[in-house]
Amino acid sequence: MADSTTNPYAAAGVDTAAGDLAVELMKSSVRATHGPEVLGGVGGFAGLFDASALRDYRHPLLATSTDGVGTKVAIAQAIDKHDTIGQDLVGMVVDDIVVVGAKPLFMTDYIACGKVVPNRIADIVRGIADACTATGTALVGGETAEHPGLLGPDDYDVAGAATGVVEKDAVLGAELVRDGDAVIALASSGLHSNGFSLVRHILTGAGIGYGDRADDLGATWGEALLEPTRLYTLPLLKLIEQLPGAVHSLSHVTGGGIAANLARVLPQGSWAEVDRATWSPDPVFRVLADIAGTPLEQTEGTWNLGIGFLAIVDGAQADAAIAAIEAQGIAAWRAGTVHLGAVPGEGFEQGAKGVDGGAVRLVGGYRDGAK
């Protein structure tokens, strides 16, 4: 701790020495994400990325995304476990870039905290760096800001932004979707990083603590809820490469749930029904719904319920796409079919997030009798 008798900033609650130590602790993990395209070291005012490789593209388009982890950080803080939040951040940011077919290039992060605890910050950044490595993304810079008086000593929030590149004629999107395309579901690893305000509300109302044992989940509640977000970037990029032209559109199932996020990437004048009977939601969703006394269908606009990504592919290549995804260790299945024409009935969700896209509804009951 800096001497507050000689350092007025320390007297105000900002420990620059702790910040410097945090940077030292994270250096090696950050450097591990750097390829020859990254210039300079850790700690500069700006990160440098050599864009000369983009000259090999015929018509490169840059894709960018920014996001955070949301109130999932409250659980990490409650049980003092901070080594998975970084993967959640990369999943939320980088996996949005692959939706348009782009390959991620680099990412920056931002951590706001009430007090810099060097080992805690290093754990967070180490998780970010490991996930960047797993997605082929360089972590080229970041910022840790200490906000005493605004945030409590153990409080923090994380956010990030990433940039990727895609050939103009390889951009994925609703305009490529055709009648008869298959909707392929890719399994989630659990809640990922959305809907935690509802999770926390349910547990608080039931008097359940994060250190309490969740027997049906085989862990404490805190451990089960911190299961990190699955990373889809490299498996999806490999799928696109293996089946040229087969993948038409992709959807990252985040806030808003399955129907809303699928509707965003379908064209106007199209519709799809996602058959609940094609999968069984993970136990964490069922247990939470049971505690709340709520049918799973009523949580569909909040949780992913076991589907982390959706791929809209040429119907004739659906089986090949599923096999390619499963070969990379992610369960996948055909969950529906896209149709062009008038919407047949009610209960469809039409577009979302300002996008006037297709119409989607979930039908039937979940497999294994889950309601």
UniProtKB/TrEMBL annotation:
<comment type="pathway">
    <text>Purine metabolism; IMP biosynthesis via de novo pathway; 5-amino-1-(5-phospho-D-ribosyl)imidazole from N(2)-formyl-N(1)-(5-phospho-D-ribosyl)glycinamide: step 2/2.</text>
</comment>
<dbReference type="InterPro" id="IPR036676">
    <property type="entry name" value="PurM-like_C_sf"/>
</dbReference>
<keyword id="KW-0547">Nucleotide-binding</keyword>
<comment type="similarity">
    <text>Belongs to the AIR synthase family.</text>
</comment>
<dbReference type="GO" id="GO:0005524">
    <property type="term" value="F:ATP binding"/>
</dbReference>
<dbReference type="InterPro" id="IPR016188">
    <property type="entry name" value="PurM-like_N"/>
</dbReference>
<dbReference type="GO" id="GO:0004637">
    <property type="term" value="F:phosphoribosylamine-glycine ligase activity"/>
</dbReference>
<keyword id="KW-0067">ATP-binding</keyword>
<dbReference type="GO" id="GO:0046084">
    <property type="term" value="P:adenine biosynthetic process"/>
</dbReference>
<dbReference type="Pfam" id="PF02769">
    <property type="entry name" value="AIRS_C"/>
</dbReference>
<dbReference type="GO" id="GO:0006189">
    <property type="term" value="P:'de novo' IMP biosynthetic process"/>
</dbReference>
<keyword id="KW-0963">Cytoplasm</keyword>
<feature type="domain" description="PurM-like N-terminal">
    <location>
        <begin position="61"/>
        <end position="166"/>
    </location>
</feature>
<dbReference type="GO" id="GO:0004641">
    <property type="term" value="F:phosphoribosylformylglycinamidine cyclo-ligase activity"/>
</dbReference>
<dbReference type="InterPro" id="IPR010918">
    <property type="entry name" value="PurM-like_C_dom"/>
</dbReference>
<keyword id="KW-0436">Ligase</keyword>
<protein>
    <recommendedName>
        <fullName>Phosphoribosylformylglycinamidine cyclo-ligase</fullName>
        <ecNumber>6.3.3.1</ecNumber>
    </recommendedName>
</protein>
<dbReference type="InterPro" id="IPR036921">
    <property type="entry name" value="PurM-like_N_sf"/>
</dbReference>
<dbReference type="Pfam" id="PF00586">
    <property type="entry name" value="AIRS"/>
</dbReference>
<feature type="domain" description="PurM-like C-terminal">
    <location>
        <begin position="178"/>
        <end position="338"/>
    </location>
</feature>
<keyword id="KW-0658">Purine biosynthesis</keyword>
<dbReference type="InterPro" id="IPR004733">
    <property type="entry name" value="PurM_cligase"/>
</dbReference>
<dbReference type="GO" id="GO:0005829">
    <property type="term" value="C:cytosol"/>
</dbReference>
